[in-house]
Amino acid sequence: MIPNTTLPNNIEMPLIGLGTTHSGGYYHDAVLHAINKCGYRLIDTAKRYGVEKQLGIAVNDCTVPRENLFLCTKLWPVDCGDGVVNAFQTSCDKLQTDYLDMYMIHMPQLPEWVQDQKEMKEKTWRQMELLYENEHVRSIGVSNYSINDLEELSEFASILPHANQIEFHPWFHQSDLKNYCDEMGILTMGYCPLAKGKYLEDEQLCRIAQKYRKSPAQICLRWSIQQNVPTVPKSTDSQRLKENTDVFDFELSEEDMNILSSFSSQNRKIVDLSNICQKMSLPDGYKLNGRVFGVPEDTEKQKSCSKCARDNNVQLSVCI
């Protein structure tokens, strides 16, 4: 069983989750295997990945009750401001759920057509706060936020983010940002915990892995969770899905933790967001390239927010 950590609002969240980024395609059987056989309960996705609908079918078909899952998805910047509510409802419909365990702003950048960026950020965060205050989501967060971004948000936020999801692995981790989040009571979450496999043959890493009789990937995951950083590796291989959860029966020494942390440099950052504004208008899931496998014929029963019964023509915006 995968242990939990606790968010600042006392909501429990698993330390290891299933990443569903659009890179590498979507394999329905792998998702079901992860949930049903490997104990994954945290499912991390985003509108941008283009797989919310497929995940909704998996959530509906799996053997685990919805209340035992922790579903996290993200708001894409083009849905800022007045678009937040509709984007949230659309994600819920696709995921076949009437609430989210966490809803995140995917990144601080906004489309270039937004003239007053700070005003729009404030409006967007207020909509996120309303979703939380009205119990449509159990927690709210941000992703890819820097210290400067968080400081700006704190100027107008009534509720600080419960989490900040950032790239976090031994070869790139922002200790100053994590320390700032710790001081502010914001939980740091990590993505790309294995650096997309780019450095798993590192000699020092392999030596540490041999010492603990674990794989290099398991050492990287342990390094994250030992810092109380929940992380969401992605895999479509059944053996690796299980291996990624087998990291709670050992503990890295302080010396080995320091060796792993010493790998970090800006040059080893994996995800490049420098030109993201030029890609905001691309279709969601564009990186999938049609690589969606094993999804059964769509027999989903759409669910709307329980507080906003669509059968009675009540709009979500009215409720909040």
TrEMBL record:
Substrate binds at residue 106. Signal peptide: none annotated. It holds the Pfam family Aldo_ket_red. Residues 16-262 form the NADP-dependent oxidoreductase domain. GO terms for molecular function: oxidoreductase activity. SUPFAM superfamilies: NAD(P)-linked oxidoreductase. InterPro entries: AKR, Aldo/ket_reductase_CS, NAD(P)_OxRdtase_dom_sf, NADP_OxRdtase_dom. PANTHER family: 2,5-DIKETO-D-GLUCONIC ACID REDUCTASE (PTHR43827), ZGC:110366 (PTHR43827:SF10). This is Aldo_ket_red domain-containing protein. The lineage of its organism: Eukaryota, Metazoa, Ecdysozoa, Nematoda, Chromadorea.
